[in-house]
């Protein structure tokens, strides 16, 4: 642990960096929540409390994140710290499935989403910079592909359209038929 190689120093720096980012993000969120909760308090209590809460939680998250990062970078074989890092990743397609999702919209239309869901078997390999030991971690990951969105319009309301056309058509037809038949009868007799 005392004399770290260049690789190990870099690895430790990158773990510290991501731990710092997490600590700052979570700390800021907690600080804002504390400001909101302490809304009824005086200025000193409100801002002081928010700063204390942000520092306490942010610090805790930093330490937890650094610890887990350091643990995953520890070589189990030779015991070197900050020596294990991802050296490769291999993906194989395990299967794909067509999926569909329908969602009713407020205006009565329907949104249809279709996509292909692919499942991959992923194997990440980690190599120790000191002894060269390789360990692997296998897991599955799913991905959406060829996503399309289609909107099916709402069916038009029937009352306005058919009601109007049938009323005008029947009245005109009836009147014309009556007039012609009447005239025909008169001329014949
Ligand atoms: Zn090792």
Major sheet attributes:
3 strands, antiparallel
Distinct bound molecules: zinc ion
The first-to-last residue Cα distance is: 127 Å
Based on Cα principal axes, name the global outline: flat
Number of domains: 2
What do you see in this structure?
- It is a single chain.
- With 189 residues, this protein is α+β, with helices and mostly antiparallel strands.
- It folds into two domains: 67 residues; 69 residues, no CATH class.
- Helices cover 49% and strands 31% of the residues.
- The protein contains three helices and three strands.
- The chain is flat and about 85 Å long.
- The chain starts with 5 loop residues before the first helix and ends with a helix.
- 11% of the residues are buried.
- The C terminus is likely disordered.
- Bound molecules: zinc ion.
Topology summary:
Layout: H1 6-37, H2 43-72, E1 84-104, E2 110-128, E3 134-152, H3 158-188
Antiparallel strand pairs: 1-2, 2-3
The chain binds zinc ion.
Tag the structure with descriptive keywords:
2 domains, disordered C terminus, flat, 3-stranded antiparallel beta sheet, alpha+beta, binds zinc ion, 189 residues, 3 helices
Short description:
The protein has 189 residues and is α+β, with helices and mostly antiparallel strands. Helices cover 49% and strands 31% of the residues. It is flat.
């Amino acid at each position: 642990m005392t004399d770290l190689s260049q690789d190990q120093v870099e690895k430790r720096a990158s773990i510290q960096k991501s731990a710092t980012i997490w600590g700052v993000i979570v700390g800021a969120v907690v600080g804002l929540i504390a400001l909101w909760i302490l809304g009824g308090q005086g200025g000193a209590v409100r801002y002081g409390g928010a700063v204390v809460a942000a520092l306490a939680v942010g610090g805790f998250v930093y330490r937890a994140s650094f610890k887990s990062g350091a643990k995953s970078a520890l070589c189990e074989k030779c015991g070197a710290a900050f020596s294990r890092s991802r050296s490769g990743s291999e993906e194989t397609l395990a299967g794909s499935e067509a999926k569909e999702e329908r969602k009713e919209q407020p205006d009565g239309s329907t949104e249809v989403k279709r996509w292909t869901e692919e499942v991959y078997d992923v194997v990440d390999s980690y190599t120790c910079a000191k002894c060269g030991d390789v360990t692997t971690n296998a897991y599955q990951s799913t991905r959406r592909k060829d996503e399309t969105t289609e909107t099916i319009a709402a069916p038009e309301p029937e009352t306005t359209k058919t009601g109007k056309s049938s009323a005008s058509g029947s009245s005109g037809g009836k009147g014309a038929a009556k007039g012609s038949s009447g005239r025909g009868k008169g001329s014949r007799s």
